[in-house]
Amino acid sequence: MMGTDAKSATSGRGWARFGFVVGVVASVAANIAHGFIPPADAVTGWTPSYGSIAAAAFWPLALVISVEVISRVLWPEGKGWAVLRFGGVSVVALIAAVISYQHLHGLLVAYGETGIGALIGPLAVDGLMAVCSGALVALSRAQRAVVEQPAAEVQSEAGPVGDAATPVHAEAPLTSDVPGKQRRTAKPAARRTASQRDDRTDAELLAMLAEMPRNANGTVSVRDAKAALKPCGTDRARRLLSEASLLDSKPTPSPEPQPAPTTPTEIPADTEPRELAPQAA
């Protein structure tokens, strides 16, 4: 779906850029060509000045630069920025259109074109540039909207990021058969969202650890932390627990072995103790 939207957002960009370039080239060429037409009172050997040729080519190029800036720069939102953006390019486009029309009209008249053709002919070039420049601006806005839409959807699913980060899933109930020790009885169904990608920051993971239940001694085991922060690795989970002062650094003491009970030897009741006979010297 996203590929289709991206393709639709850029459809026609080639034709719009091609038409814009054709209009600019035609306008620049007509302006320069009209500058070489000698005026009525020109003397023999007259040639146009370099300044007039450069000025004739400047106006269409100014419109090209303005359209590129409008379509490529990520402008901030707000009415003031909109007025600066579209008002500025409108002024440049209007000046370029008027000067280009005068040069094209004078060039057609000099070439022998009269009547309605000399009046409306220049409008074709100005109209082509206006339509294609507007299409380039519209295409850039449509493409930017397609790129920003998935990021907004991911952010809405992941929830706020930071100290108030939303837990990825509900915690499973904890029970214990051994006093002072808690264990997880059921592994919750993990929901893979954007917050479980490998590019999560330590601040996000520490916020998730803060929501986890503690053992009796106020710590969290590395195994439980690794399962909750999946796909976080063991080393990173241990490091985060240590930073959050939740790592149990004391080993669990093993129970001391109890000695086996001894059964006393019973002496029959009818057995009398025997006296030892004295040994002869």
Verbal overview:
Residues 200-235 form the EF-hand domain. This protein has 281 residues and is an all-alpha fold. The protein has two domains: 2-157, no CATH class; 159-174 and 190-249, no CATH class. It is 55% helix and 1% strand. A two-stranded antiparallel sheet has the order 1-2. The protein is rod-shaped. Residues 161-176 have low confidence and may be disordered.
Strand order of the largest sheet: 1-2
pLDDT under 50 segments (min length 5)?
161-176
Summed up, the helix count is 8
Shape: rod-shaped
Topology:
Elements: H1 2-9, H2 13-35, H3 50-72, H4 79-110, H5 116-158, E1 174-175, E2 183-184, H6 202-210, H7 222-228, H8 234-243
Helix pairs in contact: 1-5, 2-3, 2-4, 2-5, 3-4, 3-5, 4-5, 7-8
Question: What does this entry show, briefly?
Answer:
The protein has 8 helices and 2 strands; from the N terminus they run αααααββααα. It has 281 residues and is mainly α. Strands 1-2 form a two-stranded antiparallel ribbon.
Write out key terms for the chains shown.
mainly alpha; membrane; 281 residues; 8 helices; 2 domains; EF_hand_dom
